[in-house]
Amino acid sequence: MLRDESSAIRIKLPPTEMDTTLAIESISPSTGQVLERFTEYSPAQVARIIEQVQDAWPAWRRTSMEDRGERMRILADELRRDQQRLACLMAEEMGKPLAEGRAEIEKCAWVCEYYADHAATYLAPQVVASDAGRSQVAFRPLGAILAVMPWNFPFWQVFRFAAPALMAGNVGLLKHASNVPRCALAIEKLFERAGFPDQVFRTLLIGSGQVDGVIAHPAVRAVTLTGSDHAGRKVAATAGAMLKKSVLELGGSDPLIVMPDADLAEAAAQGARSRCLNAGQSCIAAKRFIVFDEVYGKFLDLLKQAMAALEVGDPLLETTQVGPMARGDLRDELHGQVQASLAEGADLVLGGKPLPRAGYYYPPTILADVAPGMPAYDQELFGPVAAVIRVSNEAQALAVANDTSFGLGASIWSGDSHRAEALAAEIEAGAVFVNGMVKSDPRLPFGGIKESGYGRELADYGIREFVNVQTVWVR
C-alpha cells in the first residue's frame, strides 16, 4: 500500500491544544479499510494558522508578477515529477482510476502554467478616459481566501482556485473534504516544495463544523466553495452575514440532447465516458440523456454497449476504467434513487445493483423511459447512472433540458452544428458544448446558474473574482 509522505508534515501541538475527540479518517473505497487517521486541528491551532497566513500576505502581494509566475512554473514541474505517486494517492483515498488521476495532475500543471503566462495581462491596469488628468481601473489582491473543496477531483478543484488566486497576490487557506486528508496535506507540501514563501498556502484539517468560524475570522476576506447546493447555501449565508465575497460551484444535472441527425455512435461513446468518468461523481457529467423518438432505440442500444464495455475494478490497476464510489453512504444513496425510479416505472437496461465485493462499487447503470416524478428525472444522480428520456421535438427537448433546478453544463449532439448552436442559446446553463463532452478548461470561464451556484472560475473572469477592482483618479 502506498504510504503518502504528507503524513510527515502534520503539525504537532501539545495535547492541551488539540481536540483529541475528533478524528479525520482516510478510508479506502476499494476495501472500506481505514488507511490513516488524523486529529482535527483545534480552533486555537486554526486561528494561529490563519494569522500566519495573514502575516505572509503583505510580502506576497508585493512580490512581482514575474516572481509569482516563476513559482507557479516550478509548481507545475513538481506536479509532473510526482504525477504517478499523486495518482496513486487519489486511487487509494477516493477511488479514481490511475489513468484519470494522471490526467488530473497534468491538468493541474496546465492551470499553473496558464496563469503564470496570462495573469499579468488579465490584471493589467485599464486606462479610462474621464475628467481626471489620468484615471485607471486597477486590480488589487484581497488577502486570505478560504477554499472549501470537494473530494471528487481532489487536486484539480484546489488548483483551479489556487493558481489564479495566488497569481493575483492573494494567499490561500484550504478546507478540503474530510475523506481526502492525505491529498489535502500533499497539496500543501507541493507548494512548499515549489518554493512558495512559508504560510502563503496552508491546509486546515478541520471538519465542516469549523467552517463558519474560519469564514468569520477578520483576516479571511472571501470564500469559494465547490460542493452540494446544501453546503453552498450554508457557506453563502455565513459569508453574506459577514459581508464577504463568495463564489459557489455547486451540483448539476446536465442534459445531453441527442438530435435525430447526430452521429449516434460518437454521442453514445462520449456520453458513456462522460457519465462514468470518476465513477460518475462529477458535477458536469452527462446525467439526463434526452433522445428524440426517431433514434431512441438505436441510441439506447449503443449507449448500453458502450457502458457495458467499461472495465470496473481496483483503481490501482491500469486496466480499470471505473473505480469504486468514494464512500459507502454515497453508493447507498445512489442505489436508493435507482430503486425508487424503478418503482415509479423506469426501465432497467443495465446494472442497477451494488457489486458483491468489498468496497463501494456500483456498476455502470442505465435507466430508460425516465419521466417526471422519478428521482432519476428530478434529482442529481452522483454516480455512474444514466437516465434516458424520450422526446418528440425540439421544443420538448429544450423544455426537458431546462426542467431542473440546476444550470451547470449541457451538451447537444447534432449533424447541424449551426442549428445546435442556436438551440444552445436557449439552454439554461453556464456552459453548453456542441458535439463534445462538457469539461473545464483554463482558457474558458467555468460556473453555473440557478442552484448550480454563481461566480466564475478560470480564464480572465476567474482571476478577477477575488480582487479589489479599484478606481484610481489623478488630477
Number of DSSP-assigned strands: 18
Oligomer: single chain
Q: What is the fold-level CATH name, i.e. the topology of the largest domain?
A: Aldehyde Dehydrogenase, Chain A, domain 1
CATH class of the largest domain, please?
A: Alpha Beta
Strand content: 15-25%
Q: How many structural domains can be distinguished in the coordinates?
A: 2
Instruction: Report the sheet with the most strands, covering strand number, pairing sense and barrel closure.
Output: 7 strands, mixed
Strand order of the largest sheet: 12-13-14-11-10-15-16
Span between termini: 67 Å
**Rg value:** 23 Å
Structural class by sheet pairing and helices: alpha/beta
Considering the protein shown, what is the CATH homologous superfamily of the largest domain?
A: Aldehyde Dehydrogenase, Chain A, domain 1
Q: Helical amount among residues, as a percent range?
A: 25-40%
Detail the poorly predicted runs. Answer: 1-21
The number of helices is 15
Shape: globular
**Shape-level CATH architecture of the largest domain:** 3-Layer(aba) Sandwich
Mean pLDDT: 95
Protein architecture, described:
The protein is α/β, with parallel strands linked by helices. It has helices spanning 43-62, 65-81, 83-94, 98-122, 156-167, 181-193, 211-216, 229-241, 264-276, 296-308, 328-343, 375-378, 394-402, 417-424, 459-463; strands at 23-27, 34-39, 126-127, 134-141, 144-148, 171-175, 201-203, 220-226, 245-249, 254-258, 286-292, 347-350, 365-368, 385-391, 409-413, 431-434, 453-454, 467-474. Helices cover 39% and strands 19% of the residues. A 7-stranded mixed sheet has the order 12-13-14-11-10-15-16, sandwiched between helices. Strands 7-6-5-8-9-17 form a 6-stranded mixed sheet, sandwiched between helices. It has a 3-stranded antiparallel sheet with strand order 3-4-18, with no helix packed on it. Helix 14 (417-424) links the parallel strand 15 (409-413) and strand 16 (431-434).
